[in-house]
Amino acid sequence: MLSEIACRCEAANCSRKLTDGDCMLVFRTEGGERRAYECACGHVTVTVAAPSE
Ligand SMILES: [Zn+2]
């Protein structure tokens, strides 16, 4: 089961909705899965998804 995480660009003058297509990097740490999204404006937003347990 996939969990869709709605996230938006963190740039102050943006707020574009980021989609899976913008995800350019996924990595895991002890804190969970992190995803880096590159917005069309050039800003990179990193999200953290807690383990689904
Ligand atoms: Zn942006």
Write up this protein:
The structure is a single chain. The strands form two sheets. Strands 3-4-5 form a three-stranded antiparallel beta sheet, with no helix packed on it. The protein has one domain (about 5-50). The protein starts with 6 loop residues before the first strand and ends with a strand. The protein is mostly beta strands and about 55 residues long. The protein is built from no helices and five strands. Zinc ion (ZN) binds next to loops.
The rough form would be described as elongated
Largest sheet: 3 strands, antiparallel
Global Rg: 11 Å
Count of individual helical segments: 0
Bound molecules: zinc ion
Helical coverage, percent range: under 10%
Based on the structure, what is the oligomeric state of the protein chains? single chain
Annotate the secondary structure layout.
Elements: E1 7-8, E2 17-18, E3 23-29, E4 32-38, E5 44-49
Antiparallel strand pairs: 1-2, 3-4, 4-5
